[in-house]
Amino acid sequence: MKIKEGVKLTALCPQMVVALIAVWEEYSKRNVELVITSGTDGTHSEKSKHYAGSALDFRVWNLPNYEVEAPQLAKQLQDKLGRDFLVLFEQDHIHIQYEPRRPT
Predict the structure, then answer these.
(1) Nearest-angstrom CA–CA distance, 45 and 62
(2) Domain tally for the chain?
(3) Residue at 23 is within a domain
(4) Which of 82, 103, 85 is nearest to 95 (CA)?
(5) Structural domain of residue 35, as residue ranges?
(6) I need a surface site. Which of 7, 63, 93, 102 has the fewest CB within 10 A?
(7) Is 34 in contact with 2 (CB distance < 8 Å)?
(8) In this structure, is residue 103 part of a structural domain?
(9) 88 located within any domain
């Protein structure tokens, strides 16, 4: 696992550590280095969960054929993490945020 330079992981909520483990497992299965590209750092929307330590972003362009594989991986992670998490493929990264008891 690698943390991109400048990324801060301070004050992550415990649930995001669970999400991080799930992501690491999936990247490991693919023999691809996991790179965290954003934590509590950076510029995000005003209501972003990043600022509260409830969101992380992960690099996808290092996945083989990432334009096909990354959306599939995001779906697998969503299924694995369940409805208390929101998992999005956002063109150049996978975004995961903790949203307890999100409606189905």
Answers:
(1) 26
(2) 1
(3) yes
(4) 85
(5) 2-98
(6) 102
(7) yes
(8) no
(9) yes
CATH code of the domain covering residue 80 = 3.40.109
Identify the bridge partners of residue 68 per DSSP, sorted by sequence position: none
Whether 67 shows a pLDDT value over 80: the answer reads yes
**Rounded to two decimals, what is the model's pTM?**
0.90
Q: What is the DSSP string of the chain?
A: -EE-TT---TT--HHHHHHHHHHHHHHHHTT---EEEESS-S---TT-SGGGT-EEEEE-TTSTTHHHHHHHHHHHHHHHH-TTEEEEE-SSEEEEEE-TT---
Which residue matches tokens 């189905």?
104
Q: Is residue 104 assigned to a domain?
A: no
Ramachandran angles phi, psi of 38, nearest 5°: -160, 140
Let me know if 8 is exposed, middle or buried by CB neighbors in 10 A (0-12, 13-18, 19+): middle
Indicate if the pLDDT at residue 91 is higher than 90. no
